[in-house]
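We were asked to recover a plausible sequence for a given structure. The inputs and outputs are reproduced exactly as logged, with field labels preserved.

PROBLEM: sequence recovery
POSITIONS: 196
GIVEN STRUCTURE:
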């Protein structure tokens, strides 16, 4: 019994103990792009550096909310952007719809796309080599990807697919959308950020 004679309430259940983060990440392409982006690539965008060469993913799982891309043509030419959620792996099937836009003038080609609601591509996925989406765009394209991230509380650590070189130990760092280290990535993070 409590001091007033009533029952002492039991502690309420905790429904979500893991660390969650919804965020938009921005990248600028330094080359023409025509490639698949994997779930490992997406989770390798935000890293924790445990040594100068061995970064780990800060988060354990991610899901795509939306992708926006702006591609500017050279004056007198045209340019196109395409995005397809085209995974065919069990547990990660995309809607396979082709999203594309072209520009021939002073306005950029522009896409704002998301995997269809309740498609497996819109669900949380862990780091793996399966395709999250395909992107094709020209050099200088700005790509924003809106992601929901969540951590793991069961001790599962995931190393980044590619080593870094000379990273400062114990910091949060960023990596290009292709998962490659800064020296070879075709997707640059904003200039002032730490990219490893």
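RECOVERED SEQUENCE:
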């Amino acid at each position: 019994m409590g001091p007033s004679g009533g029952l002492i309430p039991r502690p309420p259940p905790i429904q979500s103990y893991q660390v969650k983060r919804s965020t938009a990440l921005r990248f600028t392409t330094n080359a023409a792009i025509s490639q698949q982006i994997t779930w490992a690539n997406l989770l390798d965008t935000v890293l924790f550096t445990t040594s100068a060469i061995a970064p780990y993913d800060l988060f354990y799982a991610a899901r795509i909310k939306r992708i926006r891309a702006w591609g500017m043509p050279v004056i007198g030419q045209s340019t196109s952007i395409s995005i397809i959620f085209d995974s065919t792996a069990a547990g990660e099937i995309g809607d396979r719809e082709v999203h594309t836009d072209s520009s021939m003038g002073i306005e950029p080609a522009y896409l704002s796309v998301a995997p269809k609601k309740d498609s497996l591509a819109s669900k949380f996925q862990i780091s793996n080599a399966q395709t999250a989406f395909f992107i094709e765009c020209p050099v200088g394209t700005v790509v924003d990807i809106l992601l929901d991230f969540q951590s793991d509380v069961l001790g599962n650590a995931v190393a980044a697919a590619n080593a870094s070189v000379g990273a400062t130990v114990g910091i949060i760092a960023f990596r290009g959308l292709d998962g490659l280290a800064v020296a070879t990535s075709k997707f640059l993070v904003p200039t002032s950020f730490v990219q490893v």
